[in-house]
Design a protein that fits this description.
Number of helices: 4
Strand content: under 5%
Helix content: 55-70%
Mean pLDDT: 84
Radius of gyration: 14 Å
Shape: globular
Distance between the termini: 33 Å
Number of strands: 0
Largest sheet: none
């Protein structure tokens, strides 16, 4: 599912939620969320505590068996981020 080509510059700097513009959810994960999370971790900064990726994944991908494991992983990430905030 990962792309070898980044979205165009306009998509990367867009201030509109990705669901409202041209960036697919998986592109947002690959090119926006994960790199920003990596930067926060490397800088030993607090991670976001009010992010929920699994609901959007469920909305975008539904019950497709292809994405079941990834949605489960995103639920675990959401839970981990929520717990670390406490």
């Amino acid at each position: 599912m990962w792309s070898t080509t980044a979205p165009d510059e306009a998509a990367l700097i867009s201030q509109v939620p990705f669901a409202c513009d041209s960036m697919a959810f998986e592109a947002w994960l690959q090119f926006i969320l994960l790199p920003k999370m990596r930067l926060l971790i490397e800088a030993q900064m607090p991670l976001p505590s009010s992010i929920a990726t699994a609901p959007m994944a469920e909305h975008v991908w539904g019950e497709a068996p292809t994405y079941r494991n990834l949605i489960t992983l995103l639920r675990a990430l959401d839970e981990l981020l929520t717990k670390q905030a406490r």
